[in-house]
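Work through this protein:
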Amino acid sequence: MNPLEHQLQYPLGDTLPAAGMALDVAPGIRWVRMPLPFALDHINLWLMRDTWAGREGWTIVDCGVARDEVRTLWEEVFATQLDGLPVVRVIVTHMHPDHIGLAHWLTEKWNAPLQMSATDFLTAHLFVEGRAISGGERMAAHFERNGMTDPQGLAGVRARTRYYSQLVPQVPAHFGRILHGDTLRIGGHDWQAITGYGHAPEHISLYSPGLNIVISGDMVLPRISTNVSVTDIDPDSNPLQLYLDSLGGYGHVPADALVLPSHGRPFVGIHTRIAQQHAHHADHLERVRRACAEQPRSGYDIVPVLFRRKLDLHQMTFALGEAIAHLHMLYYRGDVVRETGEDGIVRFRAAG
């Protein structure tokens, strides 16, 4: 456990749900843990006892990626962990593959509706149907413009043309829209929707005042910082500012609320963790600013300033996106100047 984690409380200690099993975390709420094929090797999914359209059963929050091993584990959960009841609804916090990957399979299997934000639902469709490109030539050009000139790295990025669709082969055709401030009735309790930006187009967290529980998705995580990246689709964006501003949306949540995150363990201490995130990014911004004061820096130059461990290609795509996000926040607040060199690479130098 790192020092920052010591400032949080973990009511369940080190207990984790076994594969294909569910663990009770609160009355009517069960925790399922599914594997991911990345360095971040798991996602937390939530089962909520519910009644929907007159049917008794369970609402699932988030789905896991579309891989056979995850489907097999879900089948074990269905057979042994639902008390003989069906799935009546699927809620997805956002469009990233580990969250929406099996939404189509789950909604079809159980004839259950999908609910999520409109922006993430439509964006997922664009990715799956090939109208938005995740990887390939456009991402390679974006990374090259931001300083990645390594031929092997660029070739790897160009080859990632089916990264999203391999993990999310299909998205449901229909959905129910969740908007910020909406109240969802789940299991006899009201859950307030809190919209977050920067990590995903329109991320939805859920907070129940009656249960004093937050399902935080990826917006507030206990051990790792949420990835915030500038992508090839929105290359001039300022997602880090959006993310930090979005954390203010949790200000009304009590300090002793139980937080159910998408990665890591359930914890208490949401405002402590949000303060840690602000401090973390303030430190990173200052390190980036100092680096740009020494000499003009590209996003690729900033990666080792922020990430000191060896990165594989998957991790590099996130790290470079996040490095650019820090540079853009400094740029939009006037701390650095952005220039494009004769080599076509965008670099940032300290203002003044």
Notes: The chain has a mean pLDDT of 95. The domain at 5-269 is CATH 3.60.15.10 (Metallo-beta-lactamase; Chain A). The chain has one domain: 5-269. The CA atoms of residues 299 and 324 lie 5 Å apart.
